[in-house]
Amino acid sequence: MRRVVWLPALILIAIVIGAPRPTFAAPIIYTEETMATGSLGGQPFSYADVLLTFTGNTIHVFNPLPGIFVNRPGLATVHVEGIRTATFTDVIQAVDNQPIPLAGFGDVTANRGILFTINADFSTYDLRSPIGPLTGASRTTFGFAFPTTEGSFILNTVGESTFTAEITAPVPAASTLVLLGMAIAGSWLVRSSRRPRRS
Hints:
By secondary structure, the protein is an alpha+beta fold. The chain has one domain (27-167). The protein is built from 2 helices and 13 strands, in the order αβββββββββββββα. The two termini are 12 Å apart.
């Protein structure tokens, strides 16, 4: 009789341990920072600190092509030291291109890259987890006017850039779920073993 009691519990534990790792939704903030020259809303800046920020959610990450990962929609802003913070009005996305490898921000509406950082660590990154800060050479669309709430944002020169991703809320780990499943199975086992046997 005891073997019969143990069997369902063992099956449940095996199912929990063998289950595929679930995908969690988690708020995530990507930032990219560089020293650059250009203008914001017609106001020029020279060798100023420029900080791009994209706030989104990991559940929106998708994989349109092999090695390409994209996160959108989200809220994208740019802060230029000594000027102001502006919000991009086009559709903006965070991108990781593993084959190159680089990560950064692109303007979907205009089909232009805003700013990307090249670093070997992006060859295995998929935008779903924290990373960085990672620094490397920059890529941008020089001279292009990206629309914002404060007027056009234009980059004329850029130095090296630094990309960072941070999860802004705790996410349960897969190991935690396994332990929870085992606890439930154990509880069921104890209750089953305490039931009076039928004569």
